[in-house]
Amino acid sequence: MRKILQLFSLKKEERWPAAVMLMVLVFFNTLIIIHYHHYFSVVNRGYWSIFFNHFKLSGFDPYTYSIVSHWNPLYDITRHPLLAYYVWPLSAINQWLTEYFGYNPVQSLVASFLILSGFYSYLFLYRILREVLLLIRFDAILLSYFCFSFAYILLPLIAPDHFGISFFCLLFVLYVTGIKIRNGTSFKVWQTILLFIITAGVTLSNGIKVFLAAFFTNGRRFFKPTFLIIAVILPSIIIWAFARWEYYNFHNTDKPDTEENYMTWIDTSTPRIDNVVNNLLGESIQLHQENLLEDALRTRPIIVKYRHGINYIVESSIVLLFIIGIYYGRKDRFLWLILSWLSFDMFLHLVLGFGLNEVYIMGAHWLFIIPLTISYLFIISKHYILRSLRLILLLLTIWLYLWNGSLLIKYLFSPA
Questions:
Q1: Cβ(74)–Cβ(88) under 8 Å?
Q2: Does the pLDDT of residue 254 top 60, yes or no?
Q3: CA distance 372 to 350
Q4: What is the crossing angle of helices 88-101 and 106-127, to 10°?
Q5: At what angle do helices 137-148 and 106-127 cross, to 10 degrees?
Q6: In the chain, N or C: fewer CB atoms in 10 Å?
Q7: Looking at the whole model, is its pTM more than 0.85?
Q8: H, E, C per residue of 168-206
């Protein structure tokens, strides 16, 4: 228990950078609370219809607001089998506060949860850079802030969907895995099962990433019959069986039919190149001015292009740094692990077409791999090259905070 508590305690060197990130998260969560407070603070029995009709933030869904206001497993049970149970304590607290104060404080409770997720996501990303990749403190802070300047890293940490929670879970798994690789230790059966249940409970696809982490850490021992059966096959069968049982017993019919019409998850028609340039590596990192934060399944065209060439220059610069980082880190086992995660996501979206029409909202599942890969440039660079690299990353980070921050503020200050 002491070791677990130490994982979540702040070290001296982490305090002020984490405090700055905390203020950023509090600021934007406060704005979204103010933006929707008029609608969402009202006590009402038909919560889902209120949230669904009024909440508009890109393609994110207000499931968590509805579940916390009145507990019901509204998430897609076959993809998020345990998530509704994870937020049940918030729902119990919300019910008590609603009865006591006479208004619905759901936004504040969910915001607190997202702020906590974002805060520890930042912390574990920083620790990966410092303790696994062994960067100096300044470079670890710079790359961490760079990651949180991405549009669809910040947005999931203010949107009442599952992506912010998933972001934290993946970074925690990656930190634990990185430390094991660095120390030459292996995943134990119980550790693999625990991490799998927690992460797959949020999103089933995250469970695959836990198994990849165990494989890259344990090597051939991953395929030992006892480990493979008890730590991999058995938990997979159990969580899938539970998801099917949950679906047949709690399948929710309260969601309006229009929601089902919007949910076209497999897309085979959208041009992949346009989607990669303008959505996957475009909107995910830099918001578009046109159709700002509109839902692609409602009013936003699937492909939106930038007005200015500077946006494509920024995007190209980040992609170039990412590719060079892969080259210089190509012999490192930890890099191959994170690239295996990225490959899985790209296969899911670009090959199978899952969620392709709004692929950017899935960014919290993979965008953190970009700064982690670029970090290998910091590892091998010296003298003026390192100073130039720091300057480039600093300018990119400042640009992204100004660009994404100003557009998000503009959106949240407009009438809901």
A1: no
A2: no
A3: 22
A4: 140
A5: 140
A6: N
A7: yes
A8: HHHHHHHHHHHHHHHHCCCCCHHHHHHHHHHHHHHCHHH
